[in-house]
Design brief:
51% of the residues lie in helices and 20% in strands. It has 496 residues and is an alpha+beta fold. Among the domains are: 85-217, no CATH class; 336-491, Histidine kinase-like ATPase, C-terminal domain (Heat Shock Protein 90, 2-Layer Sandwich), CATH 3.30.565. The strands form 3 sheets. Strands 2-1-6-5-3-4 form a 6-stranded antiparallel beta sheet, with helices on both faces. Strands 8-10-11-13-12 form a 5-stranded mixed beta sheet, with helices on one face. A two-stranded antiparallel sheet has the order 7-9. The protein is rod-shaped.
Length: 496
């Protein structure tokens, strides 16, 4: 009883697993679509924000340069007029909170004015500017974003082209750009400073008289950018969880009508198959009565009609029984009854019942069995298994072909004592592409070629189910035009 309950629960779990896998696929699909749209939205928003901040920095540093332009012109004119005051005097130029450094060079490349918010960084900043090749054509300015780490680290630059060629020692030279070179500074603090710097050529009318370098502290903006990135990542994780829950809920709702339809279909097949068994049995019995009572009085034509009716009723009964077996297996209502018995008498009885079919098709059916063979299993199901395999072999073997049945005891792949069943035919064979589908329900190889062969395509599905209920395996070996071999291995389990 416990074993029956366990097997029934196992069958239900198999059916449930099918829907669980389907639901998981739907969940992944739904949540994946939501996450994809979310990621696209975040990328667009973050990219737009990044561009806006960069544009604002460039705009502000240009505005600061415009504010310092007149002061720089006056300093350069004063230098050209022979004012030889020292840098320490000239560096007293005013810097507000928006500036990080401010340097002015004359035409000869001499520093004539300087100031910075961190005086200790002057040499490092000057070296960095010396190594920075600035391009120009007709434009008079160049901006660059730069990140500086005071913990003995480097400058990181983001190019922001305005064009042309300008270096710190002369004018108009066609120099190679060196945008990726970093300047290493060693300062005790670990603070990182982000700067946007600008180089601008100073004119007096049409005459170049010097150049100006200006740097703005943009750490605040980059801090906002980094915080926004962190917030977006957090939102992405949060919405990923939400989208997964929403996708799971949507897939659950989508599965409700599918499960309901599947359950109704399964119940319909089971009920219809069960209801058809009774009228078919009555019809078959009625035909037998007619044959007994009227056998001598009816015409040859009527006798043939009765025989045809009996064959059709028998075929319908077999089909109904097969459908009922599948319906019960889906519902987990089947009960395999294990017992130990001699399999040879069962095989001989089956041979007697199926030989007329083989003879009518001019097919030779050979049995290769020992004198006796004790097996453990369900007698009726194993008999049904043999019938399906032999009947299938006869149907797909042309006239004057051969079908061989081999029975013996051996071992399976797990080295367990097993009942070995082989059904070999010289039939039409099966293509490799079809061999993987041959055990699927209602599947028939090449329907155009086999449409005149009786059958519904569920026999091998039932055979596989019987083998699996006995914890065994069934394999197919076939070559097109040479025939097929079905090999069954059923481990021998003592009945309890």
């Amino acid at each position: 009883m416990i074993k029956f309950v366990f097997e029934r629960m196992h069958k239900r779990r198999q059916s449930e697993d099918m829907f669980v896998k389907m639901r998981n696929r739907l969940t992944i699909m739904y949540s994946g679509m939501l996450v994809l749209f979310l990621l696209v939205f975040i990328i667009i928003v973050y990219t737009s924000l990044f561009w806006m901040v960069s544009y604002q920095q460039k705009k502000e540093v240009n505005s600061l340069a415009d504010q310092k332009l007149l002061e720089s012109q006056n300093l350069l004119k004063s230098d050209m007029n022979g004012n030889d005051s020292t840098i320490d005097d000239k560096k007293k130029i005013t810097l507000n909170n928006n500036y990080f450094f401010y340097y002015v060079y004359n035409q000869q490349g001499e520093l004539i004015a300087a100031n910075e918010t961190i005086p200790d960084l002057r040499q490092s900043l000057l070296q960095m500017l010396k190594d920075w090749s600035v391009k120009y054509t007709d434009v008079n300015s160049k901006t660059e974003n730069l990140t500086y780490s005071e913990n003995g680290s480097e400058f990181w630059r983001q190019k922001d082209s305005n064009d042309g060629n300008l270096d710190n020692r002369g004018w108009g030279k066609d120099l190679q750009n060196n945008w990726d070179k970093d300047t290493t500074l060693t300062v005790s603090s670990g603070k990182k400073i982000h700067m946007a710097i600008m180089a601008r050529i100073i004119y007096d009318g049409d005459q170049r008289i010097g150049k100006m370098y200006l740097g703005q502290d943009t750490t605040y903006y980059w801090t906002i950018i980094n915080w926004m990135l962190t917030i977006f990542i957090g939102l992405a994780i949060l919405f990923f969880i939400i989208s997964f829950l929403v996708g799971s809920s949507m897939s659950k709702r989508a599965m409700v009508p599918i499960i309901k339809s599947y359950t109704q279909q399964r119940h319909f097949v089971a009920d219809a198959s069960h209801e058809l068994r009774t009228p078919l049995s009555i019809l078959n019995s009625s035909i037998d009565v007619l044959e007994l009572e009227e056998g001598e009085n009816i015409s040859e034509f009527s006798r043939n009609v009765l025989m045809d009716m009996k064959d059709e009723v028998k075929r319908m009964t077999t089909l109904v029984n097969d459908l009922l077996s599948l319906a019960r297996s889906d519902a987990g209502l089947t009960n395999i009854s294990f017992e130990t018995f001699d399999f040879i008498p069962v095989v001989e009885q089956l041979d007697r019942s199926i030989q007329p079919l083989a003879v009518s098709r001019h097919i030779k059916l050979n049995l290769h069995t020992p004198a006796d063979l004790l097996v453990s299993g369900d007698k009726e199901r194993l008999k049904q298994l043999l019938y399906i395999l032999i009947d299938n072999a006869i149907k797909y073997t042309p006239q004057h072909g051969t079908v061989n049945l081999f029975l013996s005891m051996g071992v399976n792949d797990d080295h367990e004592e097993s009942l070995l069943i082989q059904v070999q035919d010289t039939g039409i064979g099966i293509q490799p592409a079809d061999q993987k589908k041959i055990f699927n329900r209602f599947y028939r190889v090449d329907k155009n070629r086999t449409k005149q062969i009786e059958g519904t395509g569920i026999g091998l599905a039932i055979a596989k189910w019987i083998v699996e209920e006995h914890k065994g395996t069934i394999q197919l070996s076939s070559h097109l035009g040479e025939g097929s071999v079905f090999t069954v291995k059923i481990p021998q389990i003592s009945p309890k």
